Input
Amino acid sequence: MMKHLIILLCFVTLSLPVVSQTTSITTDYNLSAEYNKYNNLRKASLAGVAVFGATWIAGSVICVVEQNRYADDSWDGNDIMEYASLSNEAKEQKAYKRGQTMELIGFFGAGLSAIAMYKFGKKAKQIKNGQGNVVALLDMDLGPHGASLILTF
Output
C-alpha cells in the first residue's frame, strides 16, 4: 500500500509542471493577418534599403569615375595645380551631376527605407488583444544553444 501511495505521489508531482505550462491557444485570423502585413512591409523595406543602397554606391562611383576621366583627359601632365583645377571643373559637368543626383536619391531612399523597416518590424512583433492594446511582444534570439522564440508580456 505504501508503494502505491509513493508512486501516486510521484505521478502527481511529476505531472504538475505539465499542467501548469499548458496554455489555451486560440486562433485569431486578424492577429495573424496583421502580423503578415507588417512582416511583408518590413521585407519590402529591406529590399528598398538594398536597392537604394546600391543606387547610392553607383552614384558615388559615377562621380569619382567621371571626375577622374575629365581631369585625366584634359590634363597635359605637367602642372599638378592644373589637375586640381580640372578636378574641380569636372564637378560642373553633366555626367558628374547625374552621379550626384543618384547619390542623393540613394541616400535618402535608403534612409527612409531603413526607418520604415524598423517601424514595420516593431509593429510585426506586437501582439494585440481584441481592443487593440499591445499585450505581448514576440521576438527571436540566437544563443549558444540555437535559436529561441521570446514572448514578453
Notes: Residues 32-125 form one domain. The first strand starts at residue 126 and ends at 128.
